[in-house]
Amino acid sequence: MEILAYGVLADERPLLERAFAGAHDLCCLDLFLNRHTASAAAGHEVVSSSVNDVLDAPTLRALADGGTRMIAQRSTGYNNIDLEAARALGMGVSRVSCYSPYAVAEFAWTLALGVNRKTVRAVSRTREFDFRLTGLMGRDFHGRTVGVLGTGQIGTAFARIAHGFGMRLLGWDVIENPECRALGMEYVDKDRLFAEADLISLHVPLLPETHHLVDAAALARMKDDAILVNTSRGGLIDAGALVETLRANRLAGVGLDVYEEEAGVFFFDRSLEVMTDDTLARLMSFRHVLVTSHQAYFTQEAVGQIIETTVRNVADYLAGRDSENTLVRPGGRS
């Protein structure tokens, strides 16, 4: 069987090809899956998608018409897939339920530290042989308060690092994590966390209940010198409200690895084009905002685990097995 993989990055391709070697043929495409590119999958029973593919109802219908019966998503999040449409079409859908939490947690700290110590601005200066320290003063994280929204595996890994810095830990989640409790974390409601934290990091999934979790009201509650970091999903933050907050000269800094309208922008070279997303362009114009293109997960360990799980998901589909990674059972399976 030949499997078609969409949205394959250059560094990811050799890992994918090596993982599937000897089991299945693999065709890797660097273009992303959407209703306009779905026709490329004609004749492929199994398609592997990436986090920035758009698997809405029209896309899934086009895939199904071409003979696709299984979607193996190479990510934990699946808010880009219309699961109800897949179920109606009898298509199976799987995801990667977990991979190295350290990849994302460590990168969240990379953003937090980079924003706090103004690292990007400092490097830009020294490349121009400007070695002044004016405007580069940061703060110690030691002794300050960190607010962690979402204390699953990634949030817990982030909290362990915060504990190592000697920070006071505040947490918010629907279920309290004993590991975080053991670190001294105090679970509080969102309003108190937003009001007391010097550093806020988001580690919750994007669900209807968490969409715009950080809205204008939440931003208003934050300290004027707070730092906000998001390495989870862009839709957790109301980007328009964030721009207005920054325009009001509030927040010491923001680190974003995700953005609500990142599809079609992140993972592409847009350097020779006019940026038509005014909100993203405005965010990137602030000197104390650091934006990266959804790379928090991008380590050898994490990508390797994602690919290994994807290979197992395909094997489970062909064997008629379900697993913790199954989101939608293929049609006809009881």
Automatic annotation (TrEMBL):
NAD found in the keyword field: yes
EC number: 1.1.1.28
Annotated D-isomer specific 2-hydroxyacid dehydrogenase catalytic domain residues: 11-326
Pfam families, A to Z: 2-Hacid_dh, 2-Hacid_dh_C
Transmembrane segments: none
CDD domains the UniProt entry points to: LDH_like_2
Recorded family membership: Belongs to the D-isomer specific 2-hydroxyacid dehydrogenase family.
GO molecular function: D-lactate dehydrogenase (NAD+) activity; NAD binding
Signal peptide (residue range): none
Protein name per UniProt: D-lactate dehydrogenase
Source organism, top-level taxon: Bacteria
